[in-house]
From TrEMBL, chain A:
Organism: Rhizorhabdus histidinilytica
Protein name: Acyl-CoA dehydrogenase
Domain of life: Bacteria
Lineage: Bacteria, Pseudomonadati, Pseudomonadota, Alphaproteobacteria, Sphingomonadales
UniProt domain Acyl-CoA dehydrogenase/oxidase N-terminal: residue ranges: 8-106
Xref: InterPro entries: Acyl-CoA_Oxase/DH_mid-dom_sf, AcylCo_DH-like_C, AcylCo_DH/oxidase_C, AcylCoA_DH/ox_N, AcylCoA_DH/ox_N_sf, AcylCoA_DH/oxidase_NM_dom_sf
Cofactors named for this entry: FAD
From TrEMBL, chain B:
Gene3D superfamilies in UniProt: Acyl-CoA dehydrogenase/oxidase, N-terminal domain, Butyryl-CoA Dehydrogenase, subunit A, domain 2, Butyryl-CoA Dehydrogenase, subunit A, domain 3
Record bears the keyword Cell membrane: no
Domain Acyl-CoA dehydrogenase/oxidase N-terminal, residue spans: 7-123
Pfam families: Acyl-CoA_dh_1, Acyl-CoA_dh_M, Acyl-CoA_dh_N
Cofactor annotation: FAD
Assigned keywords, A-Z: FAD, Flavoprotein, Oxidoreductase
Record's protein name: Acyl-CoA dehydrogenase
Length: 375, 399
C-alpha cells in the first residue's frame, strides 16, 4: 500500500491541472450546457492527445494500461473542474466491457477508436422500474434469427448515450438464462434515442428498441458472463464517479473557505464566526472521510465479487452522504448567493446530487451493504 | 498511489493471531469480554504487559532501540486490531503511548533508564495529571505550581479527570514552573511518585456507577528536581508533541471495530416482535451507515500513519480522526443499547466479573450500558469536539 503518487500519476495530474484550469469550472460549464452534447468536441480531442482516453485501455488496443488508481486520480481532477465529458461511460465502463469480449481483434479495434477520441460508447442497461443493482429485472429481449438477433425493449436514463455512436445494451436471449451484452449502433433501424439534459449539464437518453435487427457479431458477451462482466464494469465506473465526487467536494470546501474569508457581515468576515467555522469543519471531516472511502473501494476492486460489491456500496454510502453534507452546507455558507447560477457552489451542488444517484442511489446502496453484513 | 491488498500482510495477520492465541490467558480474555466496567483491571493490564514484554512485543510502536518491533504502520495497525479482536486487555496508554515517547525523545539518559523498562514491563500504572478544575479545554491556563527549592520541586495544586489515579504508583504532570512568562511558556513536564506525602487522591463517582476518574490534590509535594522531563518551560511543547506523536490513538479505531462486532452479535441474538433486531430494516440501515463510516475512519487512520501528502497540515487529518472517532464510539455503543432495547436499562454493579447469564439475560447484556454511559466522555476529553472543530477551521481553512 502506497499513498504517494508515482511519477506517471504526478505527470497525469500536472496535465490535468493545465488543461482543466484553462477551460474549467463554472464559466466553461455555463457555455457548454447549451451545446447539444453538453461538452466540447475540441476538448474531448485534447483528452485524447493527453492520453487520458487511452489511460485504462490495454496496450494491444493502443492503451496505456493505467491502473485503477491512475483513473481515480484523473477523475478527482475531472470532478474538481465539473467536467461534463462522457469520460466514465466510454473510457471506463464501455472499455471494461469491451476488453472482456470474445472477439479480441474487434474489441481492440473499437477500444483503439475510443483511445483516439473517434468513438464514444455508452451503456444502456437500466430499465424502467428495475433495481439498478441487479440484472434480474432486465426484460429487453433478444430473439435469435438466421442472421443474428432481433432486439425489443426499453432502457431508461442511459448516461451519456446522446453523444455515443455505439451503445452496449443488456438483453435476455430467448430460452437462455442470464443477461447478454450487445453492441448496437445508435442509429440502427428501430432504435430511438430520446435525449435530455440532467441537472448537472451531462446528458442521458431513454432508448426504445422495436425489432432492431443485428448481425451475429453484435453479441459482445454471452448470457453466461453478462452479469459478471457488467458487475465489474459498473464497479470500475462507480470508483471513477466516486473519485469525481471526491474532487467536487474538495473543490467545494476550498471555495467555501475562500468565501467565508471574504464575505463580511456585522463588520467581520463570516469565517470568524464559530457557527460558520463548525459548518466548514464538518465539511472538511466529511470530505476527508469520503476520500478515505474511495481508497477502500479501490483497494477491494480485485476481490471476489461479493466483497467488491460490499466495499463499493459502503463507499457509496460514505461518499453519498458526504456529498449531501458538503453541497448542502456549501449553499448555507454562501447564503442567498449559493442559490444563484453565478456562484460555483450551486453547480457543485447539482453535480454532487447527480453523482449520488447514478448506478444505485444512497438508499439502495445502504440496503445492499446492510444485507451483506447480516447475510 | 497503489492501494490493492497486500497478501503479505495477511500472513503477518495470521502470525499475530496465532501469537495472541498462544500467549493470552483464557481467563483474562474472558474477563475482558464480559467485564462490567469500562477498562480492564489494572492487574490484568499489568500482567498482560509483562507477558507481551517477555516476547518483546509490549511497546511494538516504539523505536527499536527502546524495545520496539520495527514494524510498518500497517503491521502495527494489524497488531493492535488483532489484540482488540481477541479481547486482550488494553495497554496502559498513559505509559506506553504518552509518557514513553516523551521520555525517549526528550528525557535524560537517567530518566530513560529508570522509567522505560518499568513502562515496558507494566510495573506501574501511570496517572496523567493534565486537566484542572479551572483548566479543561483551556489547558494552558493551568495553575498547579512547582517551585524549585534546592534540588526539589515543591508542588501545589489540583488535577482532575485523572484516570485510575487511585491505583497509580506514578504520574506525569503538567505544572507551572514560571508565572512570569506567557502561559504556554511557563509549563513543565514532571514525573511524580503518587506515594509522596501530600498527594491525596479522591475518586469521582461517575454516571455509570464506576469511580475510575479521580481528583488529585497536591499539597506541598516534594519532587526530586531530576524528575522534570527535558527542559523547564517546555512542558506545553512536550504535551503537544505527545498528542501529535499519537495522532491516530484518538480514533479509537481498534476499540470501535471490536465493539461494532459486538453490536452485530447482539443484533443477531436479540429478538423483537418475532424477528431479530438486525432484520429490522431501519436498524440495519443505521448499522450499515455506522459500519461504512468506521471503514472510512480506518482508511483515514492508515493515511495518517503513512503520512499521506494531502495538501493540508497533517494535524487537520488528525482532528478528523478525533472528531469522527469519538462520534463513532458513541454511535456504536448506542447501536448496542438500541439492539438491547429496554434490557439496556438494567443496572449492574460495576466490577471485573460478570453475573451468570440466563436465557433472557445473555452474556452480552451486562456491561454494555456501563460502557455506553461513560463513552459520552469521548467527545469531551482530549479536546472537546467543538475545540477540535475550531482547530480544524484554523488548520484547513486558515480562519
Amino acid at each position: 500500500m502506497d499513498f504517494a503518487k508515482s511519477d506517471i500519476q504526478t505527470m497525469l495530474l500536472d496535465s490535468a491541472e493545465r488543461l482543466l484550469a484553462d477551460s474549467s469550472g463554472v464559466e466553461y460549464w455555463r457555455e457548454r450546457r447549451h451545446d447539444p452534447l453538453g461538452f466540447d468536441e475540441g476538448r474531448w480531442a485534447q483528452f485524447a492527445e493527453l492520453g487520458w482516453l487511452a489511460l485504462p485501455l490495454p496496450e494491444a488496443a493502443g492503451g496505456l494500461d493505467g491502473t485503477i488508481e491512475d483513473v481515480a486520480l484523473l477523475n478527482i481532477a475531472l470532478g474538481k473542474s465539473l467536467a461534463t465529458e462522457p469520460y466514465v461511460s466510454s473510457v471506463v465502463l464501455a472499455s471494461q466491457i469491451l476488453r472482456q469480449a470474445a472477439d479480441r481483434g474487434r474489441a481492440d479495434a473499437l477500444m483503439g477508436e475510443i483511445a483516439s477520441g473517434t468513438l464514444r460508447v455508452a451503456l444502456a442497461h437500466q430499465e424502467p422500474g428495475a433495481d439498478p443493482l441487479s440484472t434480474e429485472a432486465v426484460v429487453t429481449v433478444a430473439r435469435r434469427t438466421a442472421d443474428g438477433f432481433v432486439l425489443t425493449g426499453a432502457k431508461l436514463m442511459a448516461a451519456d448515450a446522446p453523444s455515443a455512436a455505439q451503445l452496449i445494451l443488456s438483453a435476455r436471449i430467448e430460452d437462455e438464462d442470464g443477461v447478454a451484452l450487445f453492441l448496437v449502433p445508435a442509429d440502427a433501424d428501430g432504435l430511438t434515442v430520446d435525449a435530455y439534459p440532467l441537472i448537472d449539464g451531462t446528458r442521458a437518453a431513454d432508448i426504445r428498441l422495436t425489432n432492431v435487427a443485428l448481425s451475429a457479431d453484435a453479441l459482445l458477451i454471452g448470457s453466461n458472463r453478462g452479469e459478471a462482466v457488467l458487475d465489474e464494469a459498473i464497479h470500475r465506473a462507480g470508483v471513477a464517479l466516486m473519485a469525481q465526487a471526491v474532487g467536487a467536494m474538495e473543490a467545494c470546501i476550498r471555495i467555501c473557505g475562500d468565501y467565508a474569508r471574504e464575505r463580511k457581515q456585522f463588520g467581520a468576515a463570516i469565517g470568524s464566526f464559530q457557527a460558520i467555522q463548525h459548518i466548514l469543519a464538518d465539511m472538511f471531516v466529511a470530505t476527508h472521510q469520503a476520500r478515505s472511502m474511495l481508497y477502500h473501494a479501490i483497494a477491494n476492486s480485485n476481490r471476489p465479487a461479493a466483497e467488491r460489491a460490499a466495499a463499493l456500496s459502503a463507499a457509496r454510502i460514505v461518499i453519498g452522504e458526504a456529498g449531501q453534507l458538503v453541497s448542502r452546507s456549501g449553499i448555507q455558507v454562501h447564503g442567498g448567493y449559493g442559490l444563484t447560477d453565478e456562484y460555483a457552489v450551486s453547480h457543485y451542488f447539482r453535480r454532487l446530487m447527480s453523482l449520488e444517484k447514478q448506478y444505485g442511489d444512497l438508499v439502495r446502496h445502504t440496503e445492499r451493504f446492510g444485507d451483506s453484513l447480516f447475510a | 498511489m497503489e492501494l490493492l491488498h497486500d497478501p503479505e500482510l495477511e500472513s503477518f495477520r495470521k502470525e499475530i493471531r496465532a501469537f495472541i492465541d498462544e500467549v493470552l490467558p483464557a481467563e483474562m480474555k474472558a474477563r475482558q469480554r464480559t467485564k462490567v466496567q469500562n477498562n480492564a483491571t489494572i492487574q490484568d493490564q499489568q500482567e498482560w504487559m509483562r507477558i507481551l514484554n517477555g516476547h518483546g512485543r509490549a511497546v511494538a510502536h516504539w523505536p527499536k532501540e527502546y524495545g520496539g518491533c520495527d514494524w510498518t504502520p500497517q503491521q502495527l495497525f494489524i497488531f493492535n486490531e488483532e489484540l482488540y479482536a481477541a479481547d486482550a486487555p488494553e495497554f496502559d496508554w498513559g505509559g506506553t503511548h504518552m509518557l514513553g515517547p516523551v521520555l525517549y525523545t526528550f528525557g535524560s539518559e537517567a530518566l530513560r533508564e529508570r522509567f522505560l523498562p518499568m513502562i515496558r514491563n507494566g510495573e506501574t500504572y501511570w496517572a496523567q495529571g493534565f486537566s484542572e478544575p479551572g483548566s479543561g479545554s483551556d489547558l494552558a491556563s493551568l495553575r498547579t505550581s512547582a517551585e524549585l527549592v534546592g534540588d526539589k520541586y515543591i508542588v501545589n495544586g489540583q488535577k482532575i479527570w485523572t484516570s485510575g489515579a487511585a491505583h497509580a504508583r506514578w504520574g506525569f504532570f503538567l505544572v507551572r514552573t514560571d508565572k512570569t512568562v506567557k502561559p504556554q511558556k511557563g509549563i513543565s513536564f514532571l514525573i511524580i511518585d503518587m506515594a509522596s506525602p501530600g498527594v491525596t487522591v479522591r475518586q469521582i463517582p461517575q454516571i455509570n456507577g464506576e469511580a475510575h476518574l479521580c481528583e488529585v490534590f497536591l499539597d506541598n509535594v516534594e519532587v526530586p528536581a531530576d524528575q522534570l522531563v527535558g527542559e523547564p518551560g517546555m512542558g506545553w511543547t512536550y504535551a503537544k508533541f505527545l498528542l501529535e506523536h499519537e495522532r491516530t490513538t484518538s480514533s479509537f479505531i481498534y476499540w470501535s471495530k471490536r465493539e461494532l462486532e459486538r453490536a452485530k452479535e447482539i443484533a443477531r441474538h436479540e429478538r423483537v416482535g418475532g424477528r431479530r433486531v438486525c432484520d429490522d430494516p431501519a436498524y440495519r440501515a443505521r448499522f450499515a451507515r455506522v459500519q461504512a463510516d468506521l471503514i472510512a475512519l480506518e482508511w483515514s487512520v492508515l493515511r495518517v500513519l503513512a503520512h499521506e501528502e494531502t495538501g493540508f497540515p497533517e494535524a487537520a487529518a488528525a482532528s478528523v480522526l478525533k472528531i469522527r472517532g469519538s462520534e463513532l464510539q458513541q454511535e456504536i455503543t448506542m447501536l448496542q443499547l438500541d439492539a438491547l432495547g429496554a434490557k439496556s436499562l438494567r443496572y449492574y454493579e460495576p466490577g471485573p466479573e460478570a453475573p451468570t447469564p440466563s436465557a433472557d439475560w445473555a452474556e452480552h447484556v451486562p456491561g454494555r450500558t456501563t460502557i455506553a454511559l461513560i463513552t459520552r466522555a469521548a467527545t469531551i476529553y482530549g479536546g472537546t469536539k467543538q475545540v477540535q472543530k475550531n482547530i480544524l477551521a484554523k488548520l484547513a481553512y486558515g480562519l
